[in-house]
Protein 1
Amino acid sequence: MPALVIRQFGAAADVLGLDCEPMAQVGLGEVRVRILAAPINPADLNWIDGTYGTRPILPATPGTEAVGEVIESNATALTVGTRVIFLSYAHGWQTQRVVRAEELLAVPADLPVSDLAMLKVNPATAWRILHDFVALRPGAVVVQNAANSGVGRCVIQIAHALGLRTINMVRQQALADELRACGADLVCGDDETGKEEALSYLRALGARASLALNAVGGESALRQLDLLEEAATQVTYGAMGRRSLTIPNKFLIFRDIRFRGFWLTHWLARASPSERGETYASLLDLLRQGKLQQPVDSMHPLDSFRQALLRINASDRNGKILFVPTEGTGCGI
């Protein structure tokens, strides 16, 4: 069975290889899933270089999320032909996987494979961080950095659908029109000038932001705090800037700002089946209504993984890179 495998930690281009893995038997309560599509996420690259929140036992196949089809079942809950996404770590950069049925969620087969492949991580992260920390009413303001990231774009679209306003801080102002087309209310630079622009916007509204979403850290995270109302909450869900957040005492003592963290992996492990089902049902509804879209740059078979990795840093990349495993893929490249 063809699979992309790492045998040591390092840059993906240096340590990733295509191997032939043994075909596992389907045990009681398990199903065999044929992988249809699996994206490359930033977390996957961190997982490969050993800097993510958890380290796999090597050798291992990367791929945080994937969509597939059940092709063999020894579980009553899932029948052959059911389309599924992985709720546990997908190890999705391979052609097939044998997995326990409870680690999967059935999804509609009539939605595009690419949308379903990208459903688990970014949309669910955006949905949960907008729902789990502050009771936001329509018209409330949410401020975020890294607004052009995968999660950031999902936050914009979901917030717009919920009737929330968003202040979106970015490093590249050229993205402003693109983000406004997604539903962003204000797009400004992630610098002091951008912060002043955001403050002017808030003064015109006569309000402050109720929730801040931080995926960068460092000075970028601190800039958000001046935009928040008293007793508001900042949620950190990423660390793109690789800079820790050092909180000035004034925000704790005089402003009573609350600081929380979010990791989707923990939420998926702790949430009940009904909570997980309700979250993904809501996201599937938004997909059907055309209110949640994630662009795809390109799709690659497993044996073209080097070309796929090159697209990650391409200056003209527009969207996610997806693997589309096929049974005819060769091994040992």
Protein 2
Amino acid sequence: MNLLNHVAIIMDGNGRWGLKYKNSRNAGHKEGLKTVEKIIKQTIRHKIKFLTLYAFSTENWKRPKKEINYLFNLLENFLNHRINELYKQNIRLKIIGVKNFSSKLNKLLNASEKKTSKNKKLQINLALNYGSKFELINAFKTLYKKKEKINEKNLSKYLQTKNIPDPDLLIRTGNTKRLSNFLLWQLAYSEIFFEKKLWPEFNEKDYNKIIKKFKNIKRNFGKI
């Protein structure tokens, strides 16, 4: 049975769910937050140590400004009201991506990371303004600048996921089968599950079913 240490999730389908059921993409984002909370609880129950959530990509800036503002307001509200609860649950929050948001949001993100930095039960890596190609280019630039040998070990030192083990499992909801510039280096040997359900429809039963399947997969890592 495979050990499961790190789950990464592309939470796709909020906007489509919102349009389908509430005639509002923003309503889908709000509903999707409820799914996040359910998945965090199940992740703790399974004693998984790392959970990486793709919340906002470098490409998402192309969306309407109204929707982007709503997303960041939703995030601010969540952190303001729930960070103490995460802290009490021994959950650590880490942001991966480039923090070039409003000074208010940057301050809140930094404070949330600092407050939870010593927590050990679960580390939630929130990918915000994250793009894997940008991450890799910057890592190579740093290697060149420092005149270090280009190899896997050295490159990994300059990724935003430094000191975080690579995901064992990637789940993407929303019936879309692509990686969308997410953890391209880190997902090299991850097991990938594409789920038809939109993110707000994804539930504990779906998550547990995928975990069970993962644990019984024969993982060869290039061997026979």
